Amino acid sequence: MVKTYRHESLLGFFKGMSFPIASIAVVNSVLFGVYSNALLALTATSHQERRAQPPSYTHVFIAGCTGGFLQAYCLAPFDLIKVRLQNQTEPRAKPGSPPPRYRGPVHCAASIFQAEGPRGLFRGAWALTLRDTPTLGIYFVTYEWLCRQFTPDGQTPSSGTVLVAGGFAGITSWVAATPLDVIKSRMQMAGLKQRAYGGLLDCMVSSARQEGLGVFFRGLTINSARAFPVNAVTFLSYEHLLLSWG
Ligand SMILES: CN(C)C(=N)NCCC[C@H](N)C(=O)O
Questions:
Q1: For a Cys-Cys bond, which of 85, 204, 228, 239 suits 167, CB 3.0-4.6 Å?
Q2: Is the Cβ atom of 17 under 6 angstroms away from ligand 1?
Q3: Per-residue pLDDT at 191
Q4: Where are this protein's Solcar repeats (predicted)?
Q5: Which mutation among 21, 70, 139 tests ligand 1's pocket best, with the greatest number of atoms within 8 A of CB?
Q6: Which domain holds residue 118?
Q7: Are 62 and 119 within one domain?
Q8: Looking at residue 125, what is its pLDDT?
Q9: Counting Cβ atoms within 10 Å, is residue 96 exposed (0-12), middle (13-18) or buried (19+)?
């Protein structure tokens, strides 16, 4: 934090924000929409009926994985641009210094498109899919399990339970996702750094050889600190919206 502040001032902490904000509504709609509909198809019960007849954890897991798989493809180009902008550490507008490689998200998307073609925008999408498919299954199973532990049978979980269960579901999913998240980000940066990896496995092996196994958990603490409030609010919004509109 101190280094980022010194080098790039407060603005450094907000680098690459506009695209995630623009994409989060779309990505979460796809995730929660696919999850709800997959659960509906698997259990033939509506959201309201599910409190009296809770779905099995296997169904929750399959529906979560389906949502995770589909959301990964919507997320891929936005995530790539975020990673590229966050890794661009030139200080802003120093007189005389060369301009940064990417002037913003649109310029970043256009440059990747020009240099690498449309497939360039999906660099790392495979790793993202591998990261999100099982971890979103874990995410929804953790949420359901925690809600059921703290809610009497047949009742709707309280807002406090939803917040805590959502927060811990976020942390659990990030614990499971961090190893692949590290690899995904390295593969997304590879196009820029002219560092060619022979694929996912090669990236994993060479990262572990050079930096040790700890590399697979880099960023986990800060990710977990972020995941708790973000996912607490996400699930509270989801439950409230379904109750009022469902
Ligand atoms: C890859 N993983 C762990 C997840 N996608 N987990 C679900 C949480 C999603 C939420 N938008 C977040 O960014 O925390």
A1: 228
A2: no
A3: 63
A4: 55-149, 157-244
A5: 139
A6: 1-150
A7: yes
A8: 87
A9: exposed
pLDDT, one tens digit per residue, over 23-63 is 888 899 999 999 999 999 999 888 878 888 899 999 999 99
ipTM exceeding 0.90, yes/no: yes
Q: Does 181 lie in the same domain as 146? A: no
Q: Are residues 70 and 192 in the same domain?
A: no
- Residue 174, exposed/middle/buried by CB under 10 A (0-12, 13-18, 19+)? buried
Alpha-carbon distance of 124 to 191, in angstroms, equals 10
CA of 173 to the centre of ligand 1 (A): 7
Asked if residue 171 belongs to a domain, the reply is no
Q: What is the mean pLDDT of residues 208-225?
A: 91
How many separate domains does the chain show? 2
200 and 120 within one domain: no
Q: Are residues 24 and 134 in the same domain?
A: yes
Best probe residue, ligand 1, of 132, 142, 173, 185 (max atoms within 8 Å of C-beta): 173
Q: Are residues 210 and 107 in the same domain?
A: no
Same domain, yes or no: 141 and 201 = no
Residue 11 in domain: yes
Please write the tens of the pLDDT for every residue from 172-201: 999 999 998 898 888 877 766 656 777 888
CA dist 14 and 96 (Å) reads 24
